[in-house]
Amino acid sequence: MRSLRARLSLGVGLVIAVVLGVSGVLISNYAERTARETLDDRLRRTAELSRATAVDAVQNAVPGTDRRLDAVLRATGSSVRLFIADAVVLEAGRPALAGGIPPTGLRTVTSRGERYRVLVTPLAGAGLGDLAKLEVVSSLAELDERQGELDSRLTWLGVAALLAAGLGAFLAAVRTLGPLRR
């Protein structure tokens, strides 16, 4: 490549590619982090709203399945389980994850090829100490799908911006370096 125009255009194009790539990754990570934080907040609210029902189930008797709670949880792709020791006392929502009670806290797990966000919290106020725990689970399928669409859009937007910037740099180089050629 002996042409000064071509080298200038390539250099500017590479700088723009790096800037667009880094910007796209930062935007994608920010969007994913924000969506995950929103889901975590929803899990916490669901646990708080379910706490009274769970405490009542532990202290009095296990109630029958609440169809309204079950419908709301299924619509959001979520489930709630109440554990006493290792036994499941109450289940509501979409089919729960297989296996025993996971450790307390927030985590992402994969089950049957699908990713889930899980919140396990001790059931304070039930009078059983740390034996009673509430598990709230929500599928990450919708979140992952939206993130994939965003990443695809950012990629195509970056390619279009890179092509436009490359063409603009080449035309600017032709215009600017034209007098030097003469």
Question: What do these coordinates show?
Answer:
With 182 residues, this protein is of the alpha+beta class. Helices cover 58% and strands 21% of the residues. It is built from three helices and five strands, in the order ααβββββα. The protein has helices at 4-59, 67-75, 141-181; strands at 78-84, 87-93, 105-111, 114-122, 132-139. The chain has a five-stranded antiparallel beta sheet. Strand 3 and strand 4 (114-122) form a beta hairpin. Helix 1 (4-59) runs antiparallel to helix 3. The longest helix has 56 residues, at 4-59. The chain is rod-shaped. The relative contact order is 0.17.
**Class by SSE composition:** alpha+beta
Name the beta content range: 15-25%
Distance between the termini: 20 Å
Low-confidence stretches: none
In DSSP terms (H or I, runs of 4 or more residues), the helix count works out at 3
> What summary fits the major beta sheet?
5 strands, antiparallel
Order of helices and strands: HHEEEEEH
- Categorize the overall geometry: rod-shaped
How confident overall, as mean pLDDT?
A: 81
Annotation, overall tally of beta strands = 5
CA radius of gyration: 27 Å
Identify the strand order in the major beta sheet.
Answer: 2-1-5-4-3
Helix content: 55-70%
